[in-house]
Amino acid sequence: MSESELPRWSLEGIYPSVDSVEFDRDIKRLYDIVSEIESNGKDPDYSLKRLLSLNDLGEAYVSNLMAYTEALLSTDTSNNAYLKAFSRAEDVAMDYLSAQDIIVENVARREGEFGSPDLEEYALTLKEIMEKSRHQMSLEEERLAKEMLKVSSSAWSRLQSSITSSIEKDGKTLNELRALAFSEDRSVRENAFRCEIEILKEHEIALSSALNGVKGTVLILEKRRKWPSPLDRSLSDSRISKESFEALLEALEESISMFSRYFHRKAELLGLERLDFYDLFAPVGKSGREYTFDEAMDIVEASYYGFSKETGDFIKRARENNWIDAEMRKGKSGGAYDTYFPLKRESRIFLNFDGSFDSLFTLAHELGHAYHDSVVSELPLSWQRYPMTLAETASIFGENLLFESLIGTLSDDQRLRVIESYIQSASQVCIDILSRYYFEKEVFERRSEGELTPGELNEIMVRSQERAYGDELGEKHPYMWAVKSHYYAEDFSFYNYPYAFGELFALGLFSLRESSDDFPSLYKRVLSLTGRMDAVELSKSVGLNIEDKEFWKRGLSVIDKYIKELEK
Q1: Residue 83: CATH number of its domain
Q2: 54 closest CA partner among 19, 106, 2
Q3: Which one of 7, 16, 312, 326 is most buried, by most CB atoms within 10 A?
């Protein structure tokens, strides 16, 4: 596939450049918001609605500026101009976050005013402010903590991103080596795996230092803020109850035997006794074609049109307006994401397109996120913020739309290929995510006692993979902790279970199709409520109970149906 076929996104509609008048203007506007909060935010008689409005407006400017500079950096991690712009945005964002603490302290003392009719749209915001106030240090301590984050966990996170996006072996970047995991040739997959392990080992000291730095910072701050654990803070930020998380976790652990049947069957189809880590993404079946980017977009767009004209029109709009950066190139970070610019009410899609089936599903996934953004963009700012758990609903839903549109149009060989790819993706979201949860949980437990060496991190990772994958996986990947940027996110620990939540919640939503007269409208309503309700309330509003393990098992049963077909 030639590089000319792959688009680079256009960010000029967000800001013309990092040194543009528009970028400088929004930096100044955010400083003005900070100044107003600092001048009036401690006044107990200052308008409560105005404070909440400043809270929303400040978050919108922070999101816009940070999303823009992070988007630039992710495509060119060593660009000095982008680094300086990111630093400028981060500086004012930290000032705003400190000012936001003033709002929290003021609002928490005025609970008696919460019933005012003009504050109705802020019901969830007020509930979350009260929760935050119970875990907030003094204003001076919070300000110091935020200032220190710029040179601690945030810097460590940038170091990990910079290293993993720039290192290479035999002329191939780490991203390109990892993409070879999808090769039909086992020797190619294994060689790429060995090269990946080799270059990660060369940088293990820096990467382990970064991980220790991030996790150490989180532990100190969560303890000072009186959170029982980083997981408790994560669940609160995710707007899910402990009961719903435990129900999900129990269902995932019970699914290990189900996915073990899949791993065993995949090994048989590949002519192996059992899989090694570098076999997990190996294609099965004879449909070995590659897709051009335009072909992939045609297929994804058609799948969304098959669901509703509105969703299809949105995908077409994203495509025509050059919202997607698909090219794999040196200096570009790995992975894929959707980012939203609230001041412009637009999204952008970042991925490393390699022409595989997996790339099709990645496109469908990230465009699902972007559609979700478009739904909430019509709402007040206070209703546009939704948690990671509910964020994954639309993305996984998009993957399922693609899967369903493909499956009925394929030959037997192609059907085998697509079904296996679908289950493989589900296994990553359920089983690999489970291993990542086990890993992060043990890292936090042991990091509280001191720094962990690269060897110890490797041991924890291998043990976590053994626990989740069982006996069906031979050689493990000891350095997965080094390549997953989610582990280095100070502001959201346990950036793993939301994917399993989204996968199975989306499948649970799918189960409502038969009983709904207008399912696309119901689906859009669910997305529109993700910023207004917590996950338990939202699920109950459509007749679902996420605190019941049986709900999660319903979604797993859909995956099991295709595993059984694969076993035939």
Answers
A1: 1.20.140.70
A2: 106
A3: 326
